[in-house]
Structure formats: C-alpha cells, structure tokens
Amino acid sequence: MEVITHSPRRAMGITAALLLAGFTSLYAEEIRKTFSTTENPTVEVRTQAGRVRVKGWDQNQVGVAGQSSDAMKLSADGDAQKITIESQPTRDKLSREEAQVNLEIHVPKKSTVHVKSDRGSVEVDDISGGEVMVDGVSTDVDVANVQGGIDVKTVDGPIQLLSSQGRVKAESISGSMRFQGVSGSEFLANTNSGSIHFEGDFGGAQAAGGKPGNYVLNSYSSSIEVIAARTASFHVSARTVQGQIQNNLTIRPTAEGNSFRRLPGRYVEGRFNTGDAILEINSFAGTIRLNGSGR
Fold first, then answer.
1. What is the pLDDT of residues 215-242, one digit of tens each?
2. What is the Cα–Cα distance from 3 to 166, expressed in whole angstroms?
3. Is the CA virtual torsion 72, 101, 67, 41 positive or negative?
4. Residue 220 Ramachandran class (φ > 0 left, ψ -120 to 50 alpha, else beta)
5. How far apart are CA 106 and CA 81, in angstroms?
C-alpha cells in the first residue's frame, strides 16, 4: 500500500503544523508514503537541516510524513528490505529557513536505522533488536528506549541517550554528552572538549544474563561526571594528567601497582561494591567527578 501527497501550498493556506515548524516561505512541500516491509528492514535518512523523528511501532510497515519549503525536494523510495528517505535542494544558496525539513517516520521495532543530518535535531525512540546509527554535524541527537547497537557521531552537536541497552559508541569533537539509564556489554564515549555526564547502574548486560560490561569514557579538556546508583557494581580506573579527580564514592583500592598512583588527586583505582563491570575514565586536562545517586 502506498499513499502519496506531494503538493505546493501558498502561504495564505499554510497549515498550523507548518507554522509551528517555522516555515514562512511562499510554498511548502509535503510527502506521505507507507511501505510494507519485513520485520527488520534498513531505513536510511539523509537531510541537510531540520527535525527528524524516528519511532518504532508493532507493524511491518514504514510510514513517512514530511514537510519542507519548495526549495527542498523530498523523496522516499525502497522495497520490503530497504527504504531510503532524503531531501535535496532545488537551487543553490539556500537560507537556513529554506533548507529546513521536518520528517516523522515510523518503523518496525527491529529495524536498522541510519540517519545523516548536517544540522537540526534527530530523535530516535523505541527500537529493539535492531541498530541505530546517527551521523551529525551541528545536530542535536536524542536516542531513547533502544535495545541493540547504538553508534552516534557529531561534530559539535549534543548527544543524549536515555533508557537504552546494547553496544554503545558515542563520539563528538565539542558536543556535550549525557547518558542516563544506559548499559550494555560495551560502552565507549569519546569527546575532545564536550562534557560527559553518565548516570546509571552499570548492570544491564549482567541482569539480562550477559557478561558485565566494559565502559570507557574519554575526554581531552572537559569534565566527566559519573553518578553511580547505590546498587551499581564496577571496578573503576580513573586518571587525569593535568586536571583533578573529585571522588565521593566509597571505593576499595586495589593492590595493583601503577605509576599514576604517585599523582594524588589525579588517579583513582578500586572497586565499588563487588566490582563486576569495568569502568575506565580518562581525561588529559578535565575534572573527573565520581558521585552516588542514593538510589
């Protein structure tokens, strides 16, 4: 089944939804399509600017609804295995407003989702069993309720992951990162000058019958804050060369020798509770804060 609407509209007849989206150009484009798919299709989205929302649902269909100015051409094509959604400019030298595209996309929960966005925002919610990949530049990325592989990259856009579990890799040059209720077998967060905030129990993989996870948080010059749940269990190794470590956790030191131990306030190693997961924190000049959540 496929339903298509693709029509220009004059500003006097523009809908309230488009007004809320911020379109003030003389014309607007809309696209609406529905594709029948397998339960685990690949969905690729490529946009220059604007808002992309992807949400999982319990249907073997991909539903696409999009809006843009008449300076952008929206297209959605594919088959049962792969759907490609993209926007292309129709002329050169577009203003920021003219380049805006808003997309609402529903996908089967087991989908592999890959979004590329130069600027704007990307939200992905409720994917379980598939993979989520987001490549952004000045893009706000918000991922929630995902179980599976997560790979997010930005240049200076902030990254937020909530209530998710799986193999996680997050990288940004200067965007801040926030992780809450995120756990899994492998977790890696890298940033140059963006802050990292991690809050959780480090126990998702083990609770699901898997091995305790490995968590690595790296920053060159910005702060890294870890807020550990009272029930969390991990072995921590935290070090900074020119920054400081502020530790408010009760950590039992381990006996292994390490040259960083001769740097008071710049190195912490030991177990929190029984030390199941592995937590490695590295910063060259940033402050590392270790705190408890009380929960």
1. 999 999 999 999 999 999 999 999 999 9
2. 35
3. positive
4. alpha
5. 15
Work out the angle at residue 169's Cα, subtended by the Cα atoms of residues 64 and 230, and round it to the nearest 5 degrees. 110
Structure confidence by residue, pLDDT tens digits, 57-112: 999 999 999 988 888 888 999 999 999 999 988 888 877 777 788 999 999 999 99
The alpha carbon of residue 134 and the mean position of all alpha carbons in its chain are separated, in whole angstroms, by 7
Question: 3-class SS at 206?
Answer: helix
Specify the pairing of strand 252-253 against strand 267-272. antiparallel
**18, β-bridge pairs:** none
Q: Which tokens is 66 given?
A: 């999009």
- Identity of the residue numbered 223: S
Q: Cα separation of 157 and 193, whole Å? A: 12
Contact between 43 and 111 (Cβ < 8 Å):
yes
Sign of CA dihedral 9, 10, 15, 16: positive
Looking at residue 179, its amino acid is F
223: helix, coil or strand? coil
Q: What is the pTM of this model?
A: 0.86
Residue 234 CA, chain-centre distance (Å), reads: 24
Matching residue, tokens 């987001």: 134
Instruction: Tell me which residue has tokens 């890298």.
Output: 190
Average pLDDT, the chain: 86
The single-letter code of the amino acid at 31 is I
Beta bridge partners of 133: 114, 151
* Contact between 106 and 87 (Cβ < 8 Å): no
Residue pair 219/241 in contact by the 8 Å Cβ criterion: no
